[in-house]
Amino acid sequence: MQRRSNEWKKHCFVGVTLVLASILMFSASIQAQDSSRPWMNPKLSAGERADLVLKQMTLDEKLALLHGNGMPHVPNWQMPLTALGNGGAGYVEGVPRLGIPPLVISDAAYGVRSGGDNGRYATALPSNLAAASSWNAELACEYGALIGQELRNQGFNMTLGGGTNLTRDPRNGRTFEYAGEDPLLAGTVVGNLMKCEQDQHVVGDLKHFALNDQETGRNIVNVIISKKAMQESDLLAFHIAAGIANPGAVMCSYNRLNGNFACENSYLLTDVLKHDWKFPGFVLSDWGGTHSTVEAITAGLDQEQPMADYFGPKLKQAVEAGKVPMSAIDNSARRVLYAEFASGIIDHLIRPGVPDVERGLETAQKVEEQAIVLLKNQDSVLPIAASVHSVAVIGGHADVGMISGGGSAQVDPPGGNAIMPPGQGATHWQDHIWFPTSPLKALRAQLPNAQIEFASGKNEGEAAALAKRSDVAIVFAYQWEAEGLDLPNLSLPDGQDALIEKVAAANPRTIVVLETGTAVTMPWADKVKGIVEAWYSGSSGNKALANVLTGIVNPSAKLAMTFPKSEADLPHPKISPLSREDEGQGTGALNGETHVASKYSVTYDEGAKVGYKWYEAQHKPVLFPFGFGLSYTSYAYSDLKVGDNKQDRNVTFRLKNTGDRPGTEIAQVYVTLPNEAGESYQRLAGWQRVELKPGEEKTVSIAIDSRLLEIFQEESNSWKQLPGIYKVVVGSSSADAALAGEFKTD
Ligand code: BGC
Hints:
The protein is of the alpha/beta class. It has 19 helices and 29 strands. Bound molecules: beta-D-glucopyranose. The site of beta-D-glucopyranose has 9 residues, from loops.
């Protein structure tokens, strides 16, 4: 696993000061020389402006745009300009004489990373997977906009958020950073998030392109998959996201793909991304993911990060020796400039400011309230009535906080890790970090008349005794995951399954609240009355959760990934382990060493059948299906009509709230392609969030996304809709065919 030391702290003060000084320098120089700089005219297009300024640049100035200058807190990645990185992930020099500012880059998956160690505040939003569970594009936009603003407040102008990899294996340690297992849902959520983040004048980014779907051996693994399968799954998610967001940048991933490293893979970077998708921005390597000079730039890599091992002096030599044409340098530099003009970072220079903490907390709460998935609610054990006398809160450090996801996505909690003594809360790569968001306190605030007691769960007997003497028992269960390592399995760690069993045996009204980054197995599912998935819940997770548990908020979220019954049902029941030889090769990438070919590979023979498509095709029953989530009210679907407009196919139906509470139902449309398409399985093709008052009924119309009706044909490198019968189902999850219909094309 990649580890990062905290050595960097001492560089930060110097870094921040230097960044501020360089920003002021840029502002002054822009104002002084604007009239002589036609590229500063905001009325011109980003492309025209990039062309104009490129003409003025020397080779060295162009080359400076094509590599990073170190990562502040990683000793191996120190360079003279590292300190200018503002404590973020990377720094790319600008061209001061022409008014082009530097790129000051930060990780920002569910919030701006590394705020705490700099003494800076950042809101932690619920995990990206949680946001995807809202199926709400507008909410994803708010999520992105907030991160964009906080990046700017902290002095950054480029984000490394935008995780779009599909959840092909739920044990992937970064599942919480991604938006689930479906290309349409993931592409729509990440696309909207990144669009609105970039609108705040930060260069947007989608990552990790592509098929970096497991962390085990991520620096060396050769992913083997057909072009058709990748086009119809992971690449489709990226294409949809890129179409919505128009990101300035795309980060190529660590892994190899069908033989070549993603960052020197011409199929991925040039044929698909730049040619077929007409992506106008730049490709940057994942950190340490560049392995060559000529091969990489020829294949379509534009910027090496975070160092200049291959795209520094070696690239200049290659140009001078005629191995890389000037046109390639111009093309890459123009792409960086294009992204900078298009995102507005040149017209809106960084002006660090104070983040609106209140607004951040409100947004985080709002997202979480729409992200919490009610998985089980037998005998209406939830919501907990205000008249309840006693509640047992057990486990999961619920007295002090709620857990978050680690790695480069980690957002630092204000005041440090809630489960550590004050002053010892600095976050390290491998720490399990709890935010100081105590569900115990939030529940006490919502249920002032109830006696609410806490047991840590360390002593099962004590926990069971407390459960026994309480009206309701709530067990808080966690599962930590982070970048750099996959989960060994989907079980809850630290004996929590046994604790839940004990509590459930002591109190028939037991509810389990899950704080997880991915699916977990639940051997106790039949023995508890309620199951609530709260994910990594962010800076206001406890308040949102208390609102859902007490019924102030009616849950509406739906799973963005399947919860399987067991690892045996996954396409790959085991993630093949690395040999010692493989591991040795893996460390090289992070130290700037050249990689030798490794034999470590994974064949994704499930192809495009990711997630629910796999379980259905294999007839494997699951614990909770993709798209599933309960409400405190109920809904009825009727009167399906499948439109016959070929160009603009849509479905209409009636949806009624048949219960006694207002609610929001996420109605989903799935289409199965004709048999002629080869393997056919249902694909999510549209959805709508429908708000309904008790008893209210609405006609709902959902457009079928035509991209989901097509198959990719390798021979012609094109998409085609085949003639035949298309089956359509509409319902409340991928497993609920409440309404069924079809249409025919010829
Ligand atoms: C991760 C990226 C991250 C980068 C910079 C890499 O290890 O894979 O997602 O953006 O580091 O921190």
